[in-house]
Amino acid sequence: MNAPRSFVGGSAISLIERSLPLQVDVRGDPGDARFTGAVRACLGAALPLVANTSAGAGPVTLLWLGPDEWLALGTERSVIGALQRALDDLHCAVTDLSDARAAFRIGGRHARDLLAKGVSLDLHPDAFAAGRCAQTLLAGVTVIVHRHAGGFDLLVARSHAEYLWAWLADAAQEFWAG
Predict the structure, then answer these.
(1) Among residues 49, 54, 46, 43, which one has the least CA distance to residue 84?
(2) 114 and 90 share a domain?
(3) 30 inside domain
(4) Which of 1, 26, 38, 59 is the most exposed place for a label (fewest CB within 10 A)?
(5) Cα separation of 17 and 27, whole Å?
(6) Bridge partner list, 97
(7) Is the pLDDT score of 24 beyond 60?
């Protein structure tokens, strides 16, 4: 994808391609205080330790991807070296995935309706409230879904981004008029 794209249908639906300066995968032992402390010191946010939740502070959002895996979003790439140095003597991994995924933001009163067309997750706020995240399939493509106060963010492998963008834009057509 070249320049970021967007479709905005008033308050009904919006679909925006986002640019994230950083996506870094962090793996380690959440029971190791040195690991969690170093991550917090470098990223300014504590790791979420509850399955399928997120945490954030300032420009950083951390998504729980597994019992020993998190995805840090939105900070500067310069933090990668600091994080790697801080964790150097620990059994863990820090991997820059910034160019691996495209990011889309879906908002508006029909955001949940749009996603419900292609995912099997229960997206009702009682089941998937702001601060929740999950890895799932959307229209047959693996995505990370993160719900926040303004709607949903999707992260998808760049190799599937064009297809998913076209699918979302087509599926959103019924909502453009409001």
Answers:
(1) 43
(2) no
(3) yes
(4) 1
(5) 27
(6) none
(7) yes
Structural domain that includes position 36? 23-96
Return mean pLDDT, the chain: 92
Q: What six digits make up the tokens of 1?
A: 């994808």
Last residue of a domain, one of 69, 96, 123: 96
> For residue 53, what pLDDT is reported?
98
- The Cα 153–Cα 155 span in angstroms is 7
Any residues with CB less than 8 A from the CB of 49 and at least 6 apart, and which?
30, 64
**Region 92-116: what's the mean pLDDT?**
95
| Separation in Å, CA 36 to CA 31, 39, 43, 87 | 8, 5, 10, 10
What single letter denotes the amino acid at residue 37?
Answer: G
Helix, strand, coil shares of the chain, percent, nearest 5, are 25, 35, 40
Mention every residue, 6+ apart, whose C-beta is less than 8 A from residue 77. Answer: 21, 22, 96, 98
Q: What one-letter code names the amino acid at 108?
A: G
Q: What is the pLDDT of residues 122-154, one digit of tens each?
A: 999 999 999 999 999 999 999 999 999 999 999
Distance CA 74, CA 33 (A): 24
pLDDT digits (tens, 9 = 90+) for 101-110: 999 999 999 9
In sequence order, what are the residues at sequence separation of 6 or more whose Cβ sits closer than 8 angstroms to the Cβ of residue 170? none
